[in-house]
Each structure stands twice: as structure tokens, then as C-alpha cells.
Amino acid sequence: MTDKLVLHEFSESGNCYKVRLTAAVAGRPIERREYDLMKGETRTPEFIAKVNADGRIPVLQVGDRFIPESNAACYYLADGSLLIPTDPFEHADMLRWMFWEQYSHEPNIATLRFWMGWLAPDMLSDLQRLQMPGKRAAGNAALKLMDDHLKDREWFVGGAISLADVCLFAYTHVAGDAEFDLERCPHVVAWIGRVKATPRYIPMDS
Ligand SMILES: N[C@@H](CCC(=O)N[C@@H](CS)C(=O)NCC(=O)O)C(=O)O
């Protein structure tokens, strides 16, 4: 018998959406449990003791075990599917883009999207306000790097969609929410169209 899969999530988060999108494209049915981040529902003693000691979502529950970190959850769901390249170099290259997403892309684009979309200006701390220009510059640099990479290729790794594309897509396609100008990145815009045309694609609000 296979373990039941439950995604603990805040559905408007790109990190949570990338897990749902991976599950959909890989054909893995999941159940969903929603948490309200603005009410601190992932910071309760119960959540920290049982689901994720780091107090964050997404977390993929596999039976009675838990996988925090979006890209690790995606990797679990995509295992054995066409999203994971079998060639060892391409496999490592896919991981390269997933690590890069977490270090150079998500902390800038996703963080600004959250600060601008969910926090009223007077809720921002002095430190957050100070960090905004740096995050904007680093987010623009990340988008430019992606655009340059896609100049002469359709997908981030090899000749087909992989988990690298799914993980990068989640926050890139909504970067406009944080006032990043995607029109400056025509190759990224074309790639977004290709991801959306992938069989079993689901939008963020589904
Ligand atoms: N590196 C983590 C980041 C997780 C993360 O920052 N989650 C945010 C929502 S996208 C969260 O749970 N914030 C609530 C909090 O920190 O209390 C991942 O990729 O899953």
C-alpha cells in the first residue's frame, strides 16, 4: 500500500504552489491542508513539534513522516517521473538550478512579493525597508541570468521540461506581483508560456 500524501501549505505561496505543480505534472494525487500564515498557524507548539521544527510550510506529509523544504518535497514527488533527468550530468545540473533558486532567486523575488503583497507598509521593520533595494537588485540580476540562459534553449536543463523548470517557474511567473518587469526578459516570458502549455499543468489559484 502506498503512503497517503498530504501537503501542509499556504496556497498563495509560490513554494507551496511548486509542490502542487510537481504533483500534478508527475501525476501524484495529494491532499491539502491550509494554514493561515498571518495568524501564525505554522508557529504553534504542535506544528513545531510534529510537522516542521522550522515553523514553515510547505511540508509534504508521507504517511506519518514529514518532508519540509519545497524543493525536497518536489524531488520526492517527481522521483521516477520524466521531470527527473536520467543522465547524471543533467541530473546534477537540475539540482544546481534548484539550489540556485533557493539561494539567489526565491529570497529576493518571493520575499519582496510577500512584503509588498501581504504586509502593509507600516508593518515593515526598518531592517526590511533597508533590505528592499538590495533584494530588488538581486531579483533583477536573477531574472537577467535566467533570460540569458534561455536565449538559445527552451528549458533550463537538456531538451525537455525538468524539475528545475517547475521550481523556477513558481515565483518567476508571479514576479510582477513584486513589480519586477518581466517584459525586460523576453526569453523568460516565452519559457513561461512553454511551462503553461505542459500536459497536466495547473495554475497557481487552482
Ligand atoms: N526554503 C523553504 C522556505 C519556506 C518558507 O519560507 N515558507 C514561508 C511561506 S513561503 C513560511 O512558512 N512563512 C511563515 C513563517 O515563517 O512563519 C522552502 O523552500 O520550503
Structure description:
With 206 residues, the chain is α+β, with helices and mostly antiparallel strands. The chain has seven helices and four strands; from the N terminus they run E-H-E-H-E-E-H-H-H-H-H. It has helices at 14-26, 45-50, 70-78, 88-118, 126-149, 163-172, 186-196, and strands spanning 5-9, 31-34, 59-62, 65-68. Strands 2-1-3-4 form a four-stranded mixed sheet, covered by helices on one side. Helix 1 links the parallel strand 1 and strand 2. Helix 1 runs parallel beside helix 3 (70-78), helix 1 packs antiparallel against helix 6 and helix 4 packs parallel to helix 6 (163-172). The protein is globular. The protein starts with a strand and ends in a 10-residue tail after the last helix. Glutathione is lined by residues 10, 13, 15, 37, 42-43, 55-58, 69-71, 102.
- Name the helix and strand elements from N-terminus to C-terminus, one letter apiece: EHEHEEHHHHH
Overall number of strands: 4
Mean pLDDT: 97
Radius of gyration, CA atoms, in whole angstroms: 17 Å
Helix percentage range: 40-55%
Bound molecules: glutathione
Question: What's the number of helices?
Answer: 7
Low-confidence parts, pLDDT < 50 over ≥5 residues? Answer: none
N-to-C span? 28 Å
Strand content: 5-15%
Q: Characterize the overall form.
A: globular
Structural class, by secondary structure, is alpha+beta
User: Order of strands across the biggest sheet?
Assistant: 2-1-3-4
How would you characterize the largest beta sheet?
Answer: 4 strands, mixed
